[in-house]
Amino acid sequence: PRILILGAPGAGKGTQSAKIADYFDIEHITTGDALRSNKEMDISHLGLEYDTPGEYMDQGELVPDAVVNAIVDEALSSADGFILDGYPRNLEQVEELEEMTDLDIVIALDVSEEELVHRLTGRRMDPETGDIYHVEYNPPEDPEVEDRLVQREDDTEETVRERLRVYDENTAAVLEYYDEDGRLERVDGEQPPDDVWEDVKETVEETS
Ligand code: AP5
Ligand code: ZN
């Protein structure tokens, strides 16, 4: 299936996408990860405010559409089934995506703002595998993994607040768009991860 997952920063898009990709044997396309691997890419030819994606990301701002659209276009062209995570984030990107592919399912993870801040400031990443952990909710069992965990540069409380503001200003409209055309399937993202996964899996199986 071709699945889109929506939700605020920290809603659990990455966590659930990893499970979806595994279970349905499809590709996980994530603009956040793609951009993090290309933080230093030279985009000065666009003549915009900053010369690299990283400068936007570390402040919690959106990376310019031209950069992100190209990444998604390329990734989608070689994917049969996919779970798309982190895109579209504004209505211009929605239009671009409509040109690139048809979606079978659009899932939105609902989580309260207070919980989002708590999840993001406690998130840790394994730099070797890309696996996502949380100091409280989902600590690694292996002490060796625990020792090498890092915090994402945009997970400081100040940047988290800015990312949530940018989400409200730009990305909330994306949810409304899919809701209005009747395609949005809402899942309660505030449950424990395995319960969210049960609901997500059921939604995909019933819709596709
Ligand atoms: P991106 O990487 O996409 O960040 P985000 O949207 O802010 O989302 P996160 O990755 O922070 O959260 P998530 O929903 O994946 O949650 P996770 O599963 O990790 O984008 C980063 C930046 O890149 C943007 O700010 C922007 O600059 C740029 N960018 C990306 N896409 C762009 C685009 N299309 N256009 C322009 N710019 C773009 O979980 C979070 C934490 O909670 C973890 O610790 C996890 O263990 C824990 N957790 C997860 N689920 C649960 C649960 N059910 N219960 C308890 N804890 C949980
Ligand atoms: Zn993510």
Automatic annotation (TrEMBL):
Record-level Gene Ontology MF annotations: AMP kinase activity; ATP binding
Region (Disordered): 183-208
Biased composition (Basic and acidic residues): 198-208
Pfam family, one: ADK
Keyword Transferase: yes
Pathway field: Purine metabolism; AMP biosynthesis via salvage pathway; AMP from ADP: step 1/1
Transmembrane regions listed in the UniProt entry: none
Binding positions (ATP): 10-15, 123, 132-133, 191
Subcellular location: Cytoplasm
Residues annotated as signal peptide: none
Family annotation (InterPro entries): Adenyl_kin_sub, Adenylat/UMP-CMP_kin, Adenylat_kinase_CS, ADK_active_lid_dom_sf, P-loop_NTPase
Enzyme category, top tier: transferase
Keywords annotated in UniProt: ATP-binding, Cytoplasm, Kinase, Nucleotide biosynthesis, Nucleotide-binding, Transferase
HAMAP family: Adenylate_kinase_Adk
This protein's domain notes: Consists of three domains, a large central CORE domain and two small peripheral domains, NMPbind and LID, which undergo movements during catalysis. The LID domain closes over the site of phosphoryl transfer upon ATP binding. Assembling and dissambling the active center during each catalytic cycle provides an effective means to prevent ATP hydrolysis.
Protein name: Adenylate kinase
Organism: Natronosalvus hydrolyticus
